[in-house]
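hiii so um. not sure if this is the right channel but i have a protein structure encoded as tokens and i wanna go backwards to a sequence. like what aa goes where. can anyone help
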């Protein structure tokens, strides 16, 4: 079952069809900003309990961020495995209840941070785990992307990304670096951040954020996110005692500079890799989790930790002080 048929819900629907999974139920509120032109003749219901009464094996929670928890908790109580889109929610309310339901019912739950399936970042994880650049000193992640260009077919001001009541704002919407930096470098102990509201898009959310992260390891990190940058830019730079790692999403290639030999070496994604490959691999993994073949690579705990970092950044900006995570 897919709950929510916005942009990401439709991507998951298309990918399930690519993977030849035809038995899909669609749950919608009917308040989407997108037209009803991509349901492929599948059954659609506006009644969550009626949809869950069909006893789906898994539920993809793809509705707006602020509406995730009620659907996820109801699905878990109906013994459904879960793929919850990132961020797991807009606040911490309900997450502990969801975790208890998942543990009590022995369910598998995956959080939709698809960059964990990027081959370049996975190679960087291997390099870091093998101490290829020694102790990490610092990391920078930068992601800027012009919000009106995301979904040209809709008014961006109506999208959840631009609406505070739906859990929007760049800190939550583009929170992937908070997850993959924690995945790569370990736990974050404190955050200090500044945000920029009213940067020109006429929304009621922060449109840019700069956050400094202090990791338990002693490393420091910087995450910059915005809704304004043109052309789009998304890159990662990690400095270690024995070398440097660079990655740019534009070509997906990871580069490692080895001080010992004074040379760069590179790892490129396999031929044919494109952005949707991450989502397809994520969906294959979720289906394998449902079948009991895999354990989730990004758990409820991971989703909660990434959210705590993002919320600490928002709180730091509001209170103008460093926040412990």
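sure thing!! here u go:
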């Amino acid at each position: 079952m897919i709950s929510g048929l916005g942009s990401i819900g439709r991507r998951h629907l298309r990918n399930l069809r690519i993977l030849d999974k035809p038995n899909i139920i669609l749950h919608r509120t009917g308040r989407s900003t997108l037209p009803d032109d991509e349901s492929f003749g599948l059954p659609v219901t506006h009644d969550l309990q009626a949809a869950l009464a069909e006893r789906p094996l898994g539920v993809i929670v793809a509705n707006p961020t602020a509406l995730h928890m009620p659907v996820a908790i109801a699905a878990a109580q109906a013994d459904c495995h879960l793929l919850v889109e990132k961020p797991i929610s807009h606040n911490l309310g309900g997450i502990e209840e969801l975790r208890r339901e998942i543990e009590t019912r022995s369910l598998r739950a995956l959080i939709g941070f698809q960059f964990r399936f990027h081959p370049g970042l996975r190679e960087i994880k291997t390099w870091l785990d093998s101490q290829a650049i020694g102790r990490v000193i610092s990391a920078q992640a930068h992601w800027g992307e012009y919000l009106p260009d995301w979904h040209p077919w809709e008014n961006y001001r109506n999208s959840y990304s631009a609406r505070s009541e739906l859990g929007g704002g760049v800190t939550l919407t583009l929170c992937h670096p908070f997850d993959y930096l924690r995945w790569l470098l370990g736990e974050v102990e404190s955050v200090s951040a500044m945000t920029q509201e009213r940067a020109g898009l006429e929304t009621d959310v922060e449109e840019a954020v700069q956050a400094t992260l202090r990791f338990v390891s002693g490393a420091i990190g910087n995450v910059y996110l915005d809704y304004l940058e043109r052309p789009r830019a998304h890159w990662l730079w990690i400095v270690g005692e024995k070398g440097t790692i660079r990655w740019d999403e534009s070509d997906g290639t990871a580069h490692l500079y080895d001080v010992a030999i004074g040379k760069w070496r590179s790892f490129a994604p396999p031929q044919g890799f494109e952005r949707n490959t991450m989502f397809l691999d994520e969906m294959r993994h979720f289906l394998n989790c449902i079948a009991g073949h895999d354990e989730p690579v990004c758990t409820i705990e991971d989703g909660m930790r990434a959210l705590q970092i993002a919320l600490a950044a928002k709180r730091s900006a509001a209170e103008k002080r460093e926040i412990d995570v």
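oh and The chain has two domains: 2-114, 117-277+298-324.
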